[in-house]
Design a protein that fits this description.
With 930 residues, the chain is α+β, with helices and mostly antiparallel strands. It is 34% helix and 17% strand. The strands form 5 sheets. Strands 3-4-5-12-13-14-15-23-24-26 form a 10-stranded mixed sheet, with helices on one face. Strands 7, 8, 16, 17, 18, 19, 20, 21, 22 and 25 form a 10-stranded mixed sheet that branches. Strands 2-1-30-10-9-27 form a 6-stranded antiparallel sheet, covered by helices on one side. Helix 11 packs antiparallel against helix 22 and helix 21 crosses helix 22. Residues 1-50 have low confidence and may be disordered.
Length: 930
């Protein structure tokens, strides 16, 4: 079979490329035959299970999580997959239904929903039981797996047994992935899985943000338990039982020789002698795992140094007063045209611009340098590819443009056909093989839920359903990270803390690697080093007013990665969550920055979670401030990193609003989020426009709301919301240039057809309106530059581009997961273009930019700039617009957009057509309530 060059950090764990050349198909077959005997695990004989009696959804709860439930594969299964494309059972049986919604949504009915989703009812019908296992030989828990998807349904008669079963099932489905991410969280991935440059970047990205020692991890557990009374003690007991279940599976799979084959391919186990070990899990591993997930999806804020640099660039060009106005207009802190989740006009002020800023510590021009993380590079760690991966990891960590997690569409029963609320929601966590999330049902004393959890953290369902309610989350992004300027004293590694010269704490991690079958990267090593202060890790060095400083980042969830366990425990407790109010009470215990949504048979609800620090009067959260007592968070204790936080009532929240939408957009009026781009055009508008129309018509059904989501998932935000205005400028006079006229016709036809990036027919791998899509993809960056750079100047244009990327089309290599990641149109200059073009056209603009930019503000000059760049864009070939990568040949538009399940192990899957939708998704409508 043809082999692809591994394209991501962990793709190199695939078997091919380093097989000896003499190991052909015949010898692979022989090796597979020799290894087949240990593939099957022992299962209990009982094959009957009754449907759960505590399910109030009436068969109207559905979910989906591609590619499949089974994320473990033995060495034999990996070899079969690599050689012949054979998939292990349930490794990708949810990928097809998920992908097919792109073409099937147009004819969707309620009766057809489970053609594209799983039935998420509690329990398994007796004729659908595939296996029943008593993990570890225990009599107080069983794991039933269904025939269709292989999802584990864990039922325990004791709390310990239930959680033991959850740990055992997690290891059955995700052991290798769990092991990978406990090493990522500790900054030790390369030593464990190989030194591929992107493995290097991955561990650097997360360890820079959470450089914890083993003692730090244990302290976080101790504090979370001590501060939460009986629930804290129960969480500790649950976690220990969960770990016991994981370790029981490790021992069983090791002795039975059906452990994940990646352990052989990375040199940890010997396939012939079984020599080597798979390390047992310990409770601190769970905190390391949580630090990765919290950092990736739930830690809004940061970027204050970049904000300062763009402000200084604006002031340098325009002067302090006018430059500040220009900066504020691009920042869009509280844009009146922004789409809102809480849209009833209620105000929730947070991180607002103070009348007079206090304590600002803006750097001297040209003085900022990024704090190095990596030292003493040897071998393959010293290559240009490796250093490039380090630069990308640092930029990803330090930006405020964190990857979004989305989306949600929730409609009140007042506007549905049944009179019951309907929700279509889920997290957009990227696409991996195996998936980061895993499905399960868990039923036991004090536990009753089904849904998705991050692998290794599945002692509770984190997103899913209870007996008579469902919940989900999107990333919110409000600012819980501040940057402090600590004044240096004595040398570069001491700083002033409340007047005392204090030594920084140096934390180090040394990693080395050598080639393995899975990762042929040449031997190498490096040392990661972080200096920590009471105000957090050092990220930059600079001078402020001539004084040498270090810029540090302090996150309210820093040293508190374990705290959210209490909120998730409550969500799984049927005796706690019984109403919208108790749901809100549960998620108030989650310190990650998420938007939480709820639906039962009568009510809907929303709550924005996170430990929002109460800042000192006059502190502007957008910029660095001096590390002095007067500018610290209120009642901040550096020993525990605790402070006063805004009360729950100050967080955006709502019960029974007519509808809710969220796609990482602004939460509510006056609630400032850290990322830039909450303006007049946001991908949240794609949901808002569709759901608002459905609600106005009334009679909403599960299928109509799912259709709205699926329609938005194929929409090109630029083409739907901005392109018509650009064409209005161009068509303000007759277009006489034949090249431009032809391009305008194609673009206009695309808009008329709905502005979708959609296949001509299911499986065609070619877009309708392909030329128009190509033209817009090539035109957008050209038009943005031509529109804004002449007025802003190169320096300020570049600085603003560092705050907010120009574009995020499906084919762009954006975000922590790179290209082929599905999620698109979260960050871009669409709002700027929209507001500026409307201003040039003389239309009304609320919260407009401080001046007109396109063509210097004149319609004719603006039109000339647009036509000139459009002609250039139209002349670019598909091969130039889509240059190809290790997944796609140059010019293949569909492939450039396509979603790839990024391999984190030895099993690979085929590409699917692009959709901009949640990875795990629920469709729910409850018929009754307890």
């Amino acid at each position: 079979m043809p082999r692809r060059t591994p394209r991501t950090a962990l793709d190199r764990q695939r078997t091919p490329r380093r097989f000896p050349k003499f190991l052909g198909a015949a010898s692979i077959c022989a090796l597979i035959a020799a290894l087949l005997s240990p593939l099957t695990q022992a299962a209990a004989a009982d094959t009957t299970t009754a449907l759960a009696a505590n399910d109030y959804c009436g068969g109207q709860c559905s979910d989906i999580l591609p590619p499949g439930q089974n994320g473990n594969a033995t060495l034999a299964q990996i070899l079969l997959n690599q050689a012949f494309g054979v998939q292990p059972d349930h490794a990708e049986d949810q990928l097809g239904p998920y992908s097919n919604l792109a073409s099937g949504a147009a004819t969707l009915t309620d009766a057809k929903i489970n053609d594209f989703f799983n039935d998420a009812s509690f329990g398994v019908a007796s004729d659908q039981v595939a296996s029943t296992t008593a993990p570890g030989g225990r009599t107080d828990v069983t794991i039933v797996r269904d025939k269709k998807t292989g999802v584990p349904h864990i039922t325990g008669t004791t709390r310990y047994g239930t959680e033991y079963g959850a740990g055992y099932a997690a290891a059955q489905d995700r052991l290798w992935l769990m092991d990978v991410f406990r090493h990522v969280g500790r900054g030790q991935l390369t030593s464990f899985a190989g030194g591929a440059s992107s493995n290097q970047g991955l561990e650097q990205e997360f360890w820079r943000n959470a450089p914890y020692t083993e003692a730090d991890l244990q302290t976080q557990i101790d504090n979370a338990i001590a501060n939460n009374g009986a629930r804290g003690q129960q969480a500790l007991a649950d976690a220990n039982a969960y770990i016991d279940g994981i370790n029981a599976y490790i021992d069983a799979s090791d002795s039975g020789r059906y452990f994940p084959g990646e352990y052989v391919l990375t040199g940890h186990k010997d396939s012939i002698t079984n020599a080597g070990t798979i390390d047992h899990f310990k409770i601190t591993d769970l905190v390391a795992l949580a630090s990765v997930i919290g950092s990736l999806f739930g830690s809004g804020g940061g970027g204050e140094v970049n904000n300062a640099l763009s402000l200084l660039a604006a002031q340098s060009k325009y002067g302090v007063t006018e430059g500040t106005k220009v900066w504020e207009s691009f920042r869009e802190r509280n844009d009146p045209e922004a789409v809102l989740t809480v849209h009833n006009g209620e105000s929730f002020p947070y991180a607002s611009k103070p009348d007079t800023a206090q304590g600002e510590a803006l750097p001297d021009a040209g003085s900022v340098t990024q704090e190095p993380l990596v030292y003493d590079r040897t071998g393959s760690a010293a290559t240009a590819t490796a250093t490039g991966a380090s630069a990308t990891a640092a930029a990803t960590t330090l930006t405020s443009a964190k990857r979004g997690m989305s989306n949600a569409l929730v409609v009140s029963g007042k506007y549905t056909a049944s009179g019951h609320p309907i929700a279509v929601f889920g997290p957009q966590t990227g696409y991996f093989a195996p998936q980061l999330l895993m499905l399960q049902e868990i039923q036991g004393p004090g536990l009753s839920a089904r849904g998705a959890s991050f692998a290794g953290l599945s002692m509770y369902v984190e997103l899913g359903r209870g007996q008579d309610y469902s919940w989900s989350a999107t990333t919110s992004g409000q600012d819980i990270i501040d940057t402090y300027a600590v004044e240096l004293c004595q040398d570069d590694y001491h700083y002033l803390y409340h007047g005392t010269c204090t030594a920084m704490d140096k934390v180090e991690r040394t990693n080395s690697w050598k080639p393995t079958t899975a990762d042929g990267t040449a031997a190498g090593s490096y040392r990661m080093q972080v200096y920590r202060t009471k105000y957090g890790p050092v990220e930059y060095r600079a001078t402020v007013g001539g004084k040498k400083v270090a810029y540090t980042t302090l996150r309210s969830s820093y040293m508190h990665e374990a705290d959210s366990i209490i909120g998730f425990q409550m969500l799984n407790d049927p005796d706690y969550v019984k109403s919208p109010q108790t749901f809100q009470g549960a998620v108030q215990h989650i310190n990650y920055t998420f938007n939480w949504f709820y639906a039962d048979s009568s009510h809907t609800a929303y709550y924005n979670s996170g430990d929002n620090p109460v800042r000192a009067d006059g502190v502007d959260a957008e910029f660095p401030v001096w590390a002095q007592a007067a500018y610290e968070w209120r009642n901040w204790d550096p020993t525990t990193n605790t402070a006063s936080y805004t009360p729950p009532s100050a967080h955006p929240n709502s019960i029974d609003q007519d509808y809710y939408i969220s796609w990482n957009n602004k939460q509510a009026k006056d609630y400032t989020t850290a990322p830039w781009g909450d303006g007049s055009v946001h991908r949240g508008n794609l949901l808002e426009d569709r759901v608002k129309k459905l609600v106005a018509a009334g009679g909403v059904t599960r299928s109509s709301l799912t259709k709205a989501m699926a329609d938005a998932a194929l929409a090109d935000l630029r083409a739907e919301d901005v392109l018509p205005k650009l064409l209005k400028v161009i068509n303000s006079s007759t277009v006489t240039d034949t090249t431009a006229a032809a391009a305008v016709t194609k673009l206009s036809d695309w808009v008329t057809a709905g502005a979708k990036r959609k296949e001509t027919s299911a499986g065609s791998k070619a877009y309708a309106n392909a030329d128009a899509i190509r033209i817009l993809d090539s035109w957008w960056p050209l038009l943005v530059k031509a529109e804004f750079e002449p007025g802003l100047g190169t320096d300020l244009y570049t600085a603003f581009s560092n705050n907010l990327p120009i574009d995020e089309s499906p084919s762009a290599a954006h975000g922590p997961t790179g290209a082929h990641a599905g999620s698109s149109f979260q960050y871009g200059w669409w709002s700027y273009v929209d507001k500026d073009i409307r201003a040039v056209l003389g239309e009304s603009v609320q919260g407009g930019l401080s001046q007109k930019y396109c063509g210097g503000g004149t319609l004719s000059a603006c039109r000339d700039a647009l036509i000139s760049t459009l002609k250039t864009a139209a002349g670019l070939t598909a091969a130039q617009v889509y240059p190809g990568d290790d997944q796609c040949s140059a010019g293949d538009q569909w492939c450039a957009d396509s979603i790839v399940q990024r391999t984190l192990g030895g099993i690979k899957h085929g590409k699917i057509t692009w959709q901009n939708r949640p990875t795990y998704q629920q469709v729910v409508e409850y018929t009754s309530h307890r």
